[in-house]
């Protein structure tokens, strides 16, 4: 067994911190939509706003779209993470986030906000949340040469490779993975 270098713990700490940051912002924007919703409800009574005369159900549609796309787009995000690196998918999600909020700043009607903050932000959340959630699990397990299955039995990484695992992620510790174990 190779001894971990001094840089490995820092690398793992940075990866876990980056994953925490992505998860915090991803979940925070979805959960904090209630703040937007209350503001948009106030704007329904004011004249000259994009939400003038809109119903609560239409305003809630923006949030519903974002959560639905975050949930249903997971298989696509994981497929893209298998084809490309998960980091590339998460970075793409970051750029989609920037585009969504810039576009929502130009919104003149409710459907503009549904498109920008519902559809586009839902896609962003899916691209950032799902690969981060799955990838960070490899860094959260103890650093060892063995892995633990979801049922608690211990088995070696070589047993999993011999079994022909086709999963896009691995329950083995990140330092135990090699390029041949990644399915492309």
TrEMBL record:
This is Major facilitator superfamily (MFS) profile domain-containing protein. The chain crosses the membrane at residues 12-36, 56-76, 83-103. Residues 146-184 are annotated as: Disordered. Keywords: Membrane, Transmembrane, Transmembrane helix. It comes from Aspergillus mulundensis. Residues 168-184 have a biased composition (Polar residues).
């Amino acid at each position: 067994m190779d001894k971990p270098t001094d840089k490995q713990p820092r690398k793992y700490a940075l990866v876990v911190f980056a994953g925490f940051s992505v998860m915090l912002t991803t979940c925070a924007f979805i959960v904090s939509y209630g703040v937007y919703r209350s503001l948009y409800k106030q704007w329904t009574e004011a004249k000259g706003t994009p939400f003038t005369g809109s119903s609560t159900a239409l305003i809630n549609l923006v949030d519903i779209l974002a959560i639905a796309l975050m949930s249903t787009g997971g298989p696509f995000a994981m497929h893209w993470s298998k084809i490309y690196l998960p980091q590339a998918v998460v970075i793409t999600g970051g750029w989609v986030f920037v585009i969504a909020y810039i576009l929502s700043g130009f919104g003149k009607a409710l459907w503009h906000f549904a498109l920008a903050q519902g559809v586009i932000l839902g896609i962003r959340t899916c691209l950032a949340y799902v690969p981060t959630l799955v990838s960070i699990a490899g860094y959260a397990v103890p650093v060892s040469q063995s892995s633990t299955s979801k049922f608690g039995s211990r088995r070696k990484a070589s047993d999993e490779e011999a079994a022909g695992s086709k999963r896009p992620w691995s329950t083995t510790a990140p330092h135990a993975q090699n390029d041949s174990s990644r399915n492309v």
